[in-house]
Sequence to fold (272 residues):
Amino acid sequence: MIELKSAEEIDRMAVTGQFVGELLAELREVAAVGVNLMDLEHHARRRIRERGAESCYWDYTPSFGRGPFRNVLCLSVNDAVLHGLPRNYALRDGDLLSIDMAVGIDGWVADSALSVIVGTPAPDDLKLIEATEVALEAAIDAAWPGNQLGDISAAIGEVSRRYGYQVNDEFGGHGIGRTMHEAPHVPNNGRSGRGMKLKPGLTIAIEPWFCRSTNKIKFDEDGWTIRSADGSHSAHSEHTVAITTAGPQVLTRRPGHDTRPGNRSGQSAATS
Fold:
């Protein structure tokens, strides 16, 4: 069942989204060569606790994974793209790190992710991150009332093809609001003009992710971390978005957010 949120409820989700965006921006700055993934995890735990928020990841037990997830971040490095299990690993120069988090405040949830290069960026990795961010913005631009869900999916798929990447259909975006995962599923590829009509009050997490040279994935022994099947690097971008009569409202926009791919040196890649 799809629940449409009122303007007041969207405002309450926006409070959560602002915190998520601010914390992701913090984590992006904390991530540096030599920083341990567990340092990022504990930084996020402390900030979530101080805010009085609740992690949607802690004790999360989906059909995959081994036992409940006992962390507040998904930290995916290089060929890992989704659900990366935080571990004792010091970031190295050139690592491509994806950070994903979802929290709830006063019963309303927001979910967002970004990818960043630590230290010296490789041009291919910059291009990969750029593709996910451009795809995310294209999908947001398609999220107008009266359009259809397939328009969002098609926008992501079109960007992926333009950049030369394939799309994996197993994991995509989702509805969000009172819980982290609600209906509908939001595929990262599709046909425009198909699917449910977008109505004001619909709140969704849009999350394009691409692997550099494959659309196949594999799971680590931990049952959580998803990697590209061929070991190529991967990137992931995500925002929580509300469909409103005035157009799409991004609830998790980060302070100083730019649609071009970020790394700690501020460089960007060309689209070709």
User: Anything to note?
Assistant: The longest strand covers residues 96-105.
